[in-house]
Amino acid sequence: MEDAHCTRDPASFAASQLGCKEHWDKVYDRELANFHESGEAGEVWFGEDVALKMVDWVCDNVSDKGARILDVGCGNGHLLAELADSGFTDLTGTDYSPQAIELARNVAGGSHAIRFEVQDFLDAADVARIAGDGGFDVVLDKGTYDAISLKPQDAAGGPAVDQAAIDAYPQSVAASLKDSGVFLITSCNWTEDELTARFSGLFACAGRVRHPTFRFGGAVGQTVTTIALKKI
Ligand SMILES: C[S@@+](CC[C@H](N)C(=O)[O-])C[C@H]1O[C@@H](n2cnc3c(N)ncnc32)[C@H](O)[C@@H]1O
User: Fold this and answer.
1) Domain 10-231 sits in which CATH superfamily?
2) Of the candidates 12, 9, 17, the residue with the CA atom closest to the CA atom of residue 151
C-alpha cells in the first residue's frame, strides 16, 4: 500500500497489552461480571461525546435506515445501540473477544436490529464470512485500529509492533465494504493525515468530525480524530 505521505513511522509506537487478545478477554470478563451485578454496560472508549458525534455523522450522512452497518471491535456494542435507537435496522457488531460479544448481547437485550458475532478482523476468511455477499454500506471503528496498531510483533513480548497487522487492517476494511461504501474511524493514535495516508490507494477522504481542540506550544491539535473514508 502507498504510504509515502505518512508522517510517522509506526515503529515509533511501542507494543502494548492493548494490542493483545488476552488483555481484552480479561477486560470484558470483568465488565460482564460487573454488568450482571450492577447493570452497568461498561467503558465507552473516548467517552460519550465522541460516540454521539459518530452516531450523528451516520444519521446525517446515511439516509437509508436499512443500510448494512458493521462496527468492528464493537466492545460492549454501545455505538450500535445508539444507531438502533436512531432507527437503523441492519446492524452488526463484531469483536475477537467472545467475552465482548457476550457482554454486547446482554447489553443490547435482544434488539432485533443488531446481531453480534465473534470475528478476528485480521483473518481474511473471517472477514469474508461476516461480509457475506455484497458487503456492508458502512463500517465503523472506534479505537479498534488503535488497538491493532499496538499489537506486539512477538507473542513473547518486546516493544516492536506487528507491522503486518497494521498493513492488513485497511485491506480487511475494504473487503468488508460494498463498492463506494464508507468507513468512519475514530483514533487517538493516528492523525487525520496519517489515517488518510495509511488508507490511500483503497480509500479517499469523504469528511471529518470536529472534536474539541487543545493548544500546545503554539500548535493546535485534537486528542482524537474522526474521519470518513470512501472506498474507491
Ligand atoms: C479500544 S477498544 C474499543 C471498543 C469499542 N469500539 C469502543 O469504542 O468502546 C478496542 C476493541 O478492539 C477489539 N479488537 C482488537 N483487535 C481485534 C481484532 N483483530 N479483531 C476484532 N476485534 C479486535 C478489542 O477486543 C476491543 O474490544
Assistant:
1) Vaccinia Virus protein VP39 (3.40.50.150)
2) 17
